[in-house]
Design goal:
The chain is built from 7 helices and no strands. It is mainly alpha-helical. InterPro entries: TPR-like_helical_dom_sf, TPR_2, TPR_domain_protein, TPR_rpt.
């Protein structure tokens, strides 16, 4: 029974992949959703479930739905905490939403969990160098807004 469910989940995931490659992101999301419904909640299906969540995330990213991208990546990472693609996609979505500190945290996690993947490490290091000044600027702006708010509240 469980093997049949896994096969159905895998077939739906493959159909989703075909739709994704054709640029049909909404349709691909539907197929990944079906795959997630078929995949049994058991250790044998952790890999396919984490992949489907990561695949949903890239579809949402292509659709500009970055909050959903983050949610799906987080679900994928709950199933597989060192999933490189999910960390990359979540970091990119955080950057798009200007959640710079969260994006930096994901990039640092990539370096920590994948030290031997030189390309991933290099990309993560470049992202951190790009993001840190943006994060500092955003923190400074928030601090100034807080001070301005306190000054207007006190007067």
């Amino acid at each position: 029974m469980e093997q049949r469910a896994l096969t159905q989940a895998n077939d739906a995931k493959e159909e989703g992949n075909v739709l994704y490659r054709a640029g049909k992101y909404e349709e691909a999301l539907t197929k990944y959703g079906i795959a997630l419904q078929c995949a049994p909640d058991s250790p044998s299906s952790v890999e396919i479930r984490s992949m489907c969540h990561a695949n949903c995330a890239i579809c949402y990213s292509k659709l500009g739905r970055y909050d959903d991208t983050i949610k799906e990546c987080t679900k994928a990472l709950e199933l597989n905490p060192s999933y490189l693609k999910a960390l990359i996609r979540r970091g990119e979505a955080h950057e798009k939403l200007e959640h710079f500190d969260e994006a930096i945290a994901d990039m640092k996690k990539i370096i920590e969990l994948h030290p031997s993947d030189t390309q991933a490490r290099r990309e993560a290091e470049k992202a951190i160098q790009r993001l840190e000044p943006l994060a500092a600027k955003k923190r400074e702006k928030m601090k100034e807004e807080m001070i301005g708010f306190e000054l207007t509240t006190l007067s």
